[in-house]
Amino acid sequence: MGIVKSNLINRLSDNYPNFLKKDINKVVEIFLEETKRAIKSGRRVELRNFAVWYSKKQKKRTSRNPKTGQIIEVPEKTSVHFKMTKNLLTKINNAK
User: Shortest CA distance to 79 belongs to which of 50, 51, 59, 49?
Assistant: First the structure.
């Protein structure tokens, strides 16, 4: 199961009771919006000791519909890539 933004905000609020929930919500919203804006403009987003997000262009290509066998043109598109750091990978693999 993934983490839901509202659950993240609730957990942060529980861990940091001195902050108002609306302020924590605003910080999370700002972080997500700035991350989207950076990736959309082609910049990478890096959180040290956690992960990197970056966008990558995929060239247009010719493909085949496996059901019908019809040849189709797949247009150029941009995809978002996520790469975790070695530190996070080690923590995940050593967790019990």
Answer: 59
pLDDT at 95: 73
| HEC letters along 67-85 | CCCCEEEECCEEEEEEEEC
Which long-range CB contacts under 8 A does 15-22 form with residues at least 24 apart?
A: none
What is the model's pLDDT at position 2? 78
Place of tokens 């924590």: 24
Maximum distance among all alpha carbons in the chain? 61
Residue 52 near residue 83 (C-beta atoms within 8 A): yes
Answering whether pTM is above 0.85, one says no
Which DSSP category does 19 fall into? S
4 DSSP 8-state letter? -
Q: How far apart are CA 94 and CA 50, in angstroms?
A: 15
Here the tokens at position 87 are 């530190």
